[in-house]
Amino acid sequence: MNSMRSLVRLVNKPLTTNYLAKRTICSTPASCSDAIFAHRDTPENNPNIPFEFNEDNKKRMKEILKKYPEQYKKAAIMPLLDLGQRQHGFTSISVMNEVARLLEVPPMRVYEVATFYTMYNRQPVGKYFLQLCTTTPCQLGGCGSTKILKTIKENLGIEVGETTKDGKFTLVEVECAGACVNAPVMAINDDYYEDLTPETTEKLLENLKMDKPITPGPQSGRHTCEFAPGVYTSLNEEPYGPGFRVRDDL
């Protein structure tokens, strides 16, 4: 009974500080990755699946190791992981363990690298790995990456992070691809395809479905990132030279 009275007195007591009026710390929702850092054994990715570099890649590995002093050969973790991924199709746990064995480092050192860099695909991906840039320049450049993303989803029938049932295509979104002047841009395996439109994107995908060769670079017809008057440039007059808008008496 006494505790109830104390509670009533506390409620009726005027507050010297309005705690409800205090500003609280707010933040935008965290963007979750479509991958996890921890390894989970699957039928196609587990330590019991043997992996060994083939003869050609063993020769490449020897050339790579020549770049590093013997006591610092652990610095070759990244290029050897890339070599293993190109041979195996993705950076499996067996690829990581083999790299650790060859470089004589604890496997955890290799796992740390493979889970940090997004260039290492730790799960199987399609024959054609589509990496569409959806950051601000690509969203604003040309027709915008949003339309390109919609075109890819509708054409292939998959969402971001998924692989087509035939195993040919995997689609992911990436941060800045560094080709902003040629936006929108998409990397397919090792090559960039730029100045994309829904029409040129569909043409690329249809050719890849039939395993036909496609030409990397701008799909608009321009050479690399050269300007196209009235289309791909904001430079419509003679550029100003040194001293522009500087006082004459300085």
Describe the overall structure.
This protein has 250 residues and is α/β, with parallel strands linked by helices. It is built from 8 helices and 5 strands, in the order αααααβααβββαβ. The chain has a 5-stranded mixed sheet, covered by helices on one side. The N and C termini lie far apart (84 Å). The model has no long low-confidence stretch (mean pLDDT 86).
Percentage of residues assigned to helices? 25-40%
Dominant shape: extended
Instruction: Report the major sheet.
Output: 5 strands, mixed
Quaternary structure state of the chains depicted: single chain
Uncertain segments are none
Distance between the termini: 84 Å
Write the layout of secondary structure elements.
Blueprint: H1 2-12, H2 55-65, H3 77-88, H4 93-103, H5 107-116, E1 128-133, H6 136-140, H7 145-156, E2 169-174, E3 186-188, E4 191-194, H8 198-209, E5 217-218
Parallel strand pairs: 1-2, 4-5
Antiparallel strand pairs: 1-3, 3-4
Helix pairs in contact: 2-3, 3-4, 4-5, 7-8
Key structural traits:
5-stranded mixed β-sheet, 250 residues, alpha/beta, extended, 8 helices, 5 strands, single chain
Summarize the structure.
It contains eight helices and five strands, in the order αααααβααβββαβ.
